[in-house]
Amino acid sequence: MTFSDFDKATAATPTAFPDWLAAVLPGAVDEALRKALSDTYTPERAKELADDIFLRLRQLYTDKTTEVTL
Q1: Which helix (H) or strand (E) holds 70?
Q2: How high is the mean pLDDT in each 10-residue block of the chain (70 residues)?
Q3: Looking at residue 8, what is its pLDDT?
Q4: What is the pLDDT at residue 62?
Q5: Measured distance CA(19)–CA(25) in Å, rounded
């Protein structure tokens, strides 16, 4: 699937991407921080970072969806 295909698929169901992202992001951030920063890793910091990333990406996605539907 190309990025363009992904855009087309999520345009039909705008909540699909945020739902998918909310499901996979915490685990991905947790795993990445465990591997990259094992000496300073904490589960709380991983959750905080995942939440921040999710909120920022969701805002970008919402802005993009709004631009497309106008």
Answers
A1: none
A2: 55 68 88 92 93 87 59
A3: 60
A4: 73
A5: 10
Distance between CA atoms of residues 40 and 37, nearest Å: 6
Residue 13 region by backbone torsions, left for phi larger than 0, else alpha for psi between -120 and 50, else beta: beta
**AA identity, residue 52:** D
Residues 6+ apart with CB under 8 A from 17: 6, 10, 61
DSSP for 1-69 reads --HHHHHHHHHHSTTHHHHHHHHHHHHHHHHHHHHH-TTT--HHHHHHHHHHHHHHHHHHHHHHHHHHH
